[in-house]
Amino acid sequence: MESFDAYQTPLSSRYASKEMSYLFSPAMRFHMWRKLWLNLAIAEKQLGLPIPDEAIEQMKANLHLTPEQFAIAAAEEKKRRHDVMAHVHTFGQVAPAAAGIIHLGATSCYVTDNADLIFLREALTLLIKKLAVVIDRFATFAEEYRALPTLGFTHFQPAQLTTVGKRATLWLQELLWDLRNLKRARDDLGFRGVKGTTGTQASFLALFDGDHDKVEELDRLVTRLSGFEYAYPVTSQTYSRKIDIDVLAPLASLGATAHKLATDLRLLANLKEVEEPFESTQIGSSAMAYKRNPMRSERICSLARHLMVIHQNALMTSSVQWFERTLDDSANRRITLPEAFLTADIVLTTLQNVSEGLVVYPKVIARRIAQELPFMTTENIIMAIVKAGGDRQEAHEKIRVLSHEAAHQVKHLGLENDLIDRVRADPYFDPIKGQLDALLEPSTFIGRAPEQVDRFLAEWVRPALSDDELKASIENGGKAELSV
What we know:
Fumarase C, Chain B, domain 1; Pur_lyase; 3 domains; Ribonucleotide Reductase Protein R1, domain 1; Adenylosuccinate lyase; lyase; N6-(1,2-dicarboxyethyl)AMP AMP-lyase (fumarate-forming) activity
């Protein structure tokens, strides 16, 4: 007998959450097929087809497959080379009163496509909830370090100062956009409904003796029974594979956000300014015992690249669907859709774990600021000299010469930046030497960064997390633990 493990999705549930793994498991897939057959039978009976109550009751009582039924379905599929018909026969064995009406008027895509749309919607909901927790954790981090000055980088070269918290808001803003995009994709999803073999509903029109109103009502009833507000007005045999493009696009975009964020953390780890969690017994390298490799952030980058690439599959599959359908989408989508969501799920779990254990080293940050700030404060020194009655051009030349001398000390001799010591030693700057400490205070170089953090969190982040669904997720999120 084939075990349940034989049907597992490509990425192991060891790494993805139990909820996401189960959603894309064979147990859930075939359970959903049975629910869809039940919904179809209920709606057909309601509209007058002679379906006995016993058939409905037997179907309701057998919506979940047992291991024995998995074995029967596997044997049937091997014989019939058709997964849907294998499960029609398997379902009929445990619901014999319904055996003659299961799948009545439907095509295979009635169960496969409608089930996929249900899974896509539920999977997006799971990601939305997890992303909300990640946003909340990084918001807490941004708030804590809202005013801690740090050296900014453009082109990965020293630039003006910012704050640790302000830098985190750059990550947060992109995560908020991802939250918006995931919600849009979920809320836009419709249902395929009951459309027949080529989307014309011809089989259902025959069932209802040419009654168009009943066929349309059947579509509405099954759509509502399946939990959707609307069905796509026209389909071919399948729902348009362009829907998969629209669903996987925000996942790919989330991958780009996660990759950028994790890359920033890897660079900061190299600078020894901010580090991801590192357990006391964790080993960074098998050879170099002193190493603290940012393996979580590296894992995020690795999986995020894969997540971004999966979207290409949806694009290519959609582009080659001939006329009313071809079957070259099927095997591809059975891998692509689960793998995209399982990958996104793992990325978010790892991001949450990182966000809940970030370590900041203020003294290292302050030391790097001290190395660069003297050059940045030169304009302030010039302005102070002018205010004290000096000549700007003369002050500029003095600072230029001293700056080049200090740069020589740093670049050629490997010494510390001694520009301020040189300024203090030059009598020309006597009128402002009492102001030098104030001119070099890092907090005077961060502009409105703390206030920007406060306003961003208050006006954008907290409102985005304020609906009941997300608040419950944040409150119940706990700490994200990684299995390895």
